[in-house]
Design goal:
heterodimer, A: Formate dehydrogenase/DMSO reductase fold, 66% helix, 0% strand, globular, B: alpha+beta, Alpha-Beta Plaits, three-stranded mixed β-sheet
């Protein structure tokens, strides 16, 4: 029925290349800055103060990190709930991104928390505070991260069941892990659907609630972003960025591992993006009009420029690009437009909401992140890419075919492949 | 007296919990709890002489910064606007109506102890809470250090011990919680105030006093009790000789700050119905599309 390959560990490329060595150095610097923050404290390592309690660790590592991990639940919804079978090839990469994305969100969050060792407190019923938006976000993220690990278990089972062979002294755990994988294998198949749906519901809840967070500071927020439908906008933009994130990664991975890009799958996935962006954009514009806030768009302030970059560069341009079949069938344009949605449409939006829109009442200068804050953020992103690479090289996640040596180089011009149908 | 007072607070706590359960909106504040019996302080800036004794008393009671007492006599600090910080829970600043720049008046700022505090609504582990006696209390052992309270506070009051790598605390005026609830005393700043610019009492009584003063001396005060309505009302309230816009106190709506976020949160989680409905809907879709797929596969097998 199909010649398409099943997911398999990608082994023909070495782990270390020029690019990954640079990433490893950045990740190493990030670890050093992270340790410095833990030892020296927030005052020494950050530019946070009483006027600016939140910086890039919240805006980028946490808020943007969660938004960009949305590919996990949108892809799961598309392939496993709506049963669009051809998209099954991207479910595992998207799941891995979400799992690693949320894991790194938590690592980033721990750097920001003054008492990171109390991060488990929201799990205690005696600490629950149901009025708090942050409580809901925290609980949902905790449960969702667990769900993601459970969803990833079948991949571990597939790779290691019957083959657990830990080195040296760890060998004593072989039988234990083997029986755990066997039980997981027997039970998961029956219940995995429940977890997949739970993952989508949990995502909808906390993606939107991240947009509620700043609504508690009405007097400090710029009117361009302060709207009571902020949670809806956060949810819609998370849904809209899910597929671009999958496209972006898939193209990067196929380039890095010299695989044939999944152009046909990505091109048809890209058809959804202008629709999702269009809904998000329309609601954003109508909301602005209803709040009579158009004046702020053209007042030439820093905020207005940031808002326009977000709307034009991150929403309108990729929306127009991906509406055209010609651009959708070009790997290069798929890459460019998904990058625009990711960086300008969503990452910049989260930075705008959490940093640009926030003006304290008694500012004493503006907040500019310290070198350590930047090092930790860059280090986390680099670390995430490295772990992603390590895992796709060792687990059956990507199902791409190896391309010939010359095709690898002509990657961006690959014509649309015969429609690939993943059967099962 | 002290014992009676303690019992009174236990009763008050039980009463306010009951009120919180049976939510009812009384005015435009969106407030659900009656705070008129809470303790509060009325700050009369027309009477304040800017002696900074309140800063000294607060430092000796709480922050214990080690600054010598004489340093609090220094009036040159008024040249620069100051804000409370982790080493000073209250500070006095000097203001004037720009139309009458020579008529300077001084004003103490500290935590306002809101009736419906945004910091407490924001805190995910309940480390900040509005005590039935009035103070907004911080329990540091609960705190995870997320600093969302600082984002939320409409008066920008909570400050943080950024310098501590371990056990950093949110720092702000405590309203001398133990002194007023257990020792039956007034807050340290009120007790020391030489000119009775600070009046301690129940919120309802203080409002009567405030409006009486405005009525008896209309030439001395602007007709506005700051904190009576602002942000749903606060335990600490102010009288001033000129518009509050000339001071550092922010212009705020009458609605309580957390109203919007709590409405959204409680709407989404109403008896957990919306999430469960979404779960059910997705389950239905999953089930029906799966059947369709099976059927189409069957038919293609037959062909």
């Amino acid at each position: 029925m199909t010649s398409h390959e099943l997911p398999h560990p990608i082994r023909q490329t070495p782990f270390f290349t020029k690019g990954t060595i640079v990433l490893a150095i950045l990740a190493g610097l990030g670890v050093a800055a992270y340790l410095y923050r833990m030892i020296a404290g927030l005052e020494a390592s950050t530019n946070l103060n009483d006027q600016y309690p939140w910086g890039i660790w919240i805006a980028i590592d946490v808020a943007t990190g969660v938004a960009l991990a949305a590919g996990g639940f949108t892809t799961a919804a598309l392939a496993d709930i709506f049963h669009k079978e051809r998209y099954h090839v991207i479910v595992r990469p998207a799941l891995l991104t979400a799992m690693l994305g949320y894991t790194f969100v938590v690592i980033g969050l721990l750097a920001d928390l003054g008492r990171y060792y109390n991060v488990w407190h929201p799990m205690l019923p005696s600490m629950w505070q149901g009025d708090s938006v942050l409580f809901e976000v925290g609980i949902c993220v905790m449960i969702y991260l667990t769900v993601l690990y459970i969803e990833f278990l079948p991949i571990v089972v597939e790779r290691f069941k019957g083959r657990v062979n830990l080195p040296g002294i760890l060998g004593i755990f072989n039988d234990l892990i083997e029986s755990f994988l066997t039980i997981a294998d027997r039970t998961l198949g029956r219940f995995i659907s429940l977890f997949i749906i739970a993952g989508v519901v949990l995502s909808c809840l906390h993606q939107s609630s991240l947009g509620t967070l700043m609504l508690i500071a009405p007097t400090k927020m710029h009117p361009l972003w302060y709207t009571s439908i902020s949670p809806l906008l956060f949810l819609l933009s998370a849904i809209a960025v899910g597929f671009p994130m999958v496209m972006f990664e898939s193209i990067l991975a196929s380039k890095s591992f010299k695989l044939k890009p999944e152009t046909s799958v990505l091109a048809s996935l890209a058809r959804y993006v202008p629709v999702l962006l269009g809904v998000y954009c329309a609601i954003k514009v109508v909301d602005l009009a209803m709040r009579d806030a158009w004046g702020y768009v053209f007042d030439g302030s820093f905020e207005s420029i940031m808002w326009l970059i977000e709307m034009v560069g991150g929403i309108l341009i990729p929306m127009i690009l991906l509406s055209s079949e010609k651009f959708r069938n070009s790997v290069r344009w798929l890459f460019v437009s998904s990058a625009l949605v990711i960086v300008l449409g969503v990452a910049l939006n989260r930075i705008n909401v959490f940093l640009v829109a926030y003006t304290p009442l008694y500012p004493d200068g503006v907040y500019i992140p310290s070198i350590f804050e930047v090092m930790v953020t860059v280090g986390l992103i680099s670390g995430l890419v490295l772990v992603y690479r390590l895992l796709v090289m060792n687990f059956p996640i990507i199902s791409g075919e190896e391309s010939g040596p010359d095709r690898g180089r002509r990657l961006t011009k690959t014509p649309i492949a015969q429609e690939v149908r993943q059967g099962n | 007296m002290a014992i009676n007072r303690r019992n009174f607070f236990k009763l008050a706590a039980a009463g306010s919990t009951a009120l919180a359960v049976g939510k009812a909106h009384a005015d435009d504040s969106g407030l659900t709890v009656d705070c008129s019996d809470n303790y509060g302080v009325l700050v009369d800036t027309a009477v304040c002489i800017g002696c900074r004794r309140c800063e000294l008393a607060c430092d000796q009671e709480h922050t214990k910064s080690g600054r010598p007492p004489e340093s609090f006599d220094d009036k040159s600090v008024y040249e620069k606007h100051r804000r409370p910080n982790k080493d000073a829970f209250t500070v006095v600043n000097e203001f004037a109506d720009p139309a009458k720049p020579d008529d300077k008046y001084t004003m103490k700022v500290q935590c306002m102890h809101c009736n419906d505090p945004a910091c407490a609504s924001a805190c995910l582990v309940g480390a900040l809470r509005k005590d039935a006696a009035g103070p907004v209390v911080y329990e540091e052992w609960r705190c995870i250090g997320c600093r969302y309270c600082m984002v939320a506070c409409p008066f920008q009051i909570p400050t943080y011990e950024y310098d501590k790598a371990l056990e950093p605390r949110v720092r702000k005026c405590t309203f001398c919680y133990e002194r007023i609830t257990e020792e039956g005393q007034m807050p340290a700043c009120v007790a020391i105030c030489p000119n009775e610019a600070l009046t301690f009492g129940t919120r309802q009584r203080l409002l009567e006093v405030a409006h009486y003063r405005i009525k008896s001396h209309p030439e001395r005060y602007v007709d506005h009790v700051y904190g009576e309505k602002e942000a749903g009302g606060t335990s600490w309230m102010y009288l001033a000789p000129a518009e509050f816009a000339h001071t550092e106190l922010p212009r705020l709506d009458h609605s309580a700050i957390p109203t919007l976020t709590e409405t959204i949160q409680h709407g989404i989680f109403k008896s957990f119905l919306p999430p469960l409905a979404l779960y059910g809907l997705l389950g239905l879709i999953m089930h029906s599309t799966r059947e369709k797929k099976d059927r189409s596969e069957e038919s293609s097998n037959h062909d």
